[in-house]
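Students often ask why we bother encoding 3D structure as a string. The short answer is that it lets us treat folding as translation between two languages. Here is a chain of 240 residues written in the first language.
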Amino acid sequence: MTREAADRQAVVGLTLAGAILTGWTALHLWGVFFHPLEGPGLYAAPLLIVVQTWLGTGLFITAHDAMHGSLAPGRPRLNAAVGQLAVGLYAAFDYRKLRAAHHEHHRAPGSEDDPDFHHGRPQEFVRWYLKFFRTYFGWREFALVTVVLALYLGPLGASPLNAALFWGVPAILSSLQLFAFGTWLPHRHSDDAFADAHNARTVPMGWSLSLLTCFHFGRHHEHHLRPDAPWWRLPGVKAG
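And here it is in the second language, the structure alphabet:
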């Protein structure tokens, strides 16, 4: 990639990342501290949860591009800074730990050495999801989230119900969304054989649904073929 092309990709990627980060933060603060759960606000709550879930998925996908250096090509420190901010907001994750595990996934997808794969249950959703969850959300993350929650409910005066609805519920739903469309559907064993050693398949859907489900991450075979392609370029990557 030329320097000029890398700069163009960085401008687009960082602009989209900024929109996702800003949108998630604004809705998070509004939902947890200000959104009324009565009258019109009560009816708007499900929509707010859905949008917050989608933006939470976007936080992780932004960090994922940073892990591959495709967010801002040729700028490793910038990728790491934005990636850490994104996964820190998402669930107090350690970017370096996630990055190391993700590259292990790409080195041995769908094998015993793949931290994202459930070798013993290659078809089952629930046990695989629980393994996936426990692999990444450990005591460190639990402690940090607990501290922030205590600050929210204590000195900052957030409503416990608002915190649950507009932080807890979207976080859980987005983890399910990421797992379903970014791990389980692409890598689960089925009657259809995988196309190659990447052990990944693409979830068939149109452009709009692909964006709404997981920021095109359901185009997973394409991602394994071209891990240098950011999420917004995946629809243009050829699988064959």
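Translate back mentally: The chain has a mean pLDDT of 94. Keep this in mind for the problem set.
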